[in-house]
Structure formats: C-alpha cells, structure tokens
Amino acid sequence: MDGSAESWRVLNVAQGQGMMTILVADVPQMDGRYSAALAGWDLAFVRTIGEARQALGGARPDLVVIGVYFDDSRMFDLVRALRSEDANGGMPIVCVRGRPGFTALTTRTLALTLKALTVDEFIDLVHFGEDDSGNAALRTAVERLVRR
To answer: Could you tell me what percentage of the chain is helix, strand and coil, using 3-state DSSP and rounding each to the nearest 5?
Structure first.
C-alpha cells in the first residue's frame, strides 16, 4: 500500500474483517524491513505528518510505528500530536531507530525522552538482525504491544 488516503480506506475495510493494521511513519528505505518483519499485517506507509494526520482521521490502526528519521526527523512532533489528541490516547506507539550511527548516550537519551512522552516502546533495530531470526524477534516485540 502506498499510504495514500485511498489505500487507507482499503485498510479500514480490511480492519473491519479482523485484520491487524499498522500505520508506519518512516522513510521509504525502511519499507522492506517492515514488510519482512510484519508480513501478513496491513501496513500503511506515510511520509509526512500531514499524511499521518490524514490517515488517522479515519479508523484507528492497531498500532503506529514511527521512525526516528520520519519526515526529516519529526518523530517527536508526531508523537506529541498523537498523544495530545484524546481519541488517540490509548493507541500503542512504537518508535524505531533503523540505522546505526548514534552513540550509546544518544540512544539512551532518546529512549528516556520517548518514555517521558508515553511512547509504548522504543526499538533499536541494531539489536535485531536483518534476517529471518531478527525479523521474527522484531515481530514478537510488536505483537506483544498490540495484544496488551
């Protein structure tokens, strides 16, 4: 799915049939990783805060995944927007760092800031191999959040 409003309407229909929907707000370079790790779920990819808000104007997804580099590093802006809207208060949010390059201190600071913003989980993909085993572990981490 391309993340457009039309594809989101299709996902909403599928959600009514019991399919799990995940709104993925990240850079296009991460699409393959999410598709591999979360195969079988309906993924709607958005690239900007505007697209995310439009997608969330319809039915609520089961989970929102936001990458650190989303929309020119506007992950925090989207988290704050989601948490400030009462309708989205209980929606699980996972933030993901998909590329190496941060120091341990920066990663720890990022995780603490996200916790303060009531993000449900921070996942550093550096700890999940980009193979079947790593994708299975990532999927398990995500499923744990959705099934709470």
So the answer is: 55, 15, 30
The model's pTM is 0.82
Domain that holds residue 46: 5-146
Closest by CA to 2, choosing from 64, 51, 72, 57, is 51
SS3 63: strand
CATH assignment of the domain containing 42? 3.40.50.2300
Q: Give the pair of three-digit tokens for residue 66.
A: 């936001």
**Residue 25 is which amino acid?**
A
Which residue, among 92, 129, 124, has the nearest Cα to 111 in the 3D structure? 124
Residue-wise pLDDT for 86-138, tens only, equals: 555 678 999 998 876 777 878 888 889 999 888 999 998 888 999 999 999 99
Number of domains in the chain: 1
